[in-house]
Amino acid sequence: MGININDFKYLEPVSIGDKRPKFRDVMEEKEVSVKYYLSTAYMDTLIRHKARHEAAGHGFGYKIIDIDGVANAIVVGGMGRECNLLIDKRLTNFTPITRIKGEVNKDGVRKMTPREWARLQGFPDKFKIVVADASAYKQFGNSVAIPAIQATAEQELKTLGLI
Fold first, then answer.
1. For the purposes of burial, counting CB atoms within 10 Å of the CB of 106, is it exposed (0-12), middle (13-18) or buried (19 or more)?
2. Contact 65, 85 (CB under 8 A)
3. Angstrom distance (rounded) from CA 111 to CA 87
4. What angle do CA 76, 153, 22 make, to 5 degrees?
5. pTM of the predicted model, to two decimals?
């Protein structure tokens, strides 16, 4: 079978009508555990770290996304989770359930949950997350987005004349 690789065309990004997806679309519907909220000591560290990098002319540092905007790429390792912090003021119990320095910040700054990362990557809510959060972040951060895999596979099948 003669297959011309030039017949394969990557698809244009899919939009949902004229509605651009927002982080709010994947955000947890209910209040999340206090363990996802940053401590005041950790927030101070992030602020100082960002200031040092800005003074050196680097753009590195934590980022708080707008929940009505688009999330940044999810990154594994280093400060990856700090690229997608958000403000979620629904927390009602500020009593820490993990060992932290300082106290839970009252500004509502938290990291995304593993379920939110899964949704960003296109995993359905029925997908079971059966590992610790640290492992889940690594797995979802190293994943290719499910819709991208599906679209690419369908295009490959079309190129091969199988659909």
1. exposed
2. yes
3. 9
4. 50
5. 0.83
User: Cα(88)–Cα(9) distance, rounded to whole angstroms?
Assistant: 40
Residue 155, pLDDT score: 84
| pLDDT for residue 60 | 79
Strand, coil or helix: 16: strand
* Diameter of the chain measured on Cα atoms: 66
Alpha carbon of 144 to those of 75, 120, 140, 149: distances in Å?
12, 10, 8, 7
The encoded tokens of residue 75 equal: 């990154």
**In this structure, are residues 84 and 78 in contact, taking their beta carbons and an 8 Å threshold?**
no
Q: Which residues of the chain have pLDDT under 70?
A: 1-3, 13-19, 77-81
